[in-house]
# Entry
Amino acid sequence: MINEYKAHSAADYYIVGYIYAHNVYFTVTPEINADWLKVEKASRNQGENLRLRMSSATKKALMETNPVCLGDEASLTSGKYNKGENFEKMVTEYFGQVWEKDTIPFWEAGDITLDGKEVQIKLDSATLMNTKHLEKWAA
# Structure
């Protein structure tokens, strides 16, 4: 699944988020490391999900890469949006852009554009894709 995700992703690079010591951080990375991913059973008959699942050791290692702290983890649960949407909003606003909830698929565009590059934003535990995408691309 990771190979299919990489083959179809419109992102030039990624911003991955995680909680460490009760704060929300992000790290910019050229790709999502396969070790950070797990294939899990999806809900609602969607087959399987490819999900971002960073270990404590991974988060600790990322803390040594000069991550950006966006604030307390409670900020992820404020308002009407879910944690992933709130994280995407926080990152987008960090870069001085106006966030709008969107439904553009990851194979068409990133979540934001920075310096002409498409950037996909993912918070730890986010779903990247599911087997329904694989079936669609195979058809």
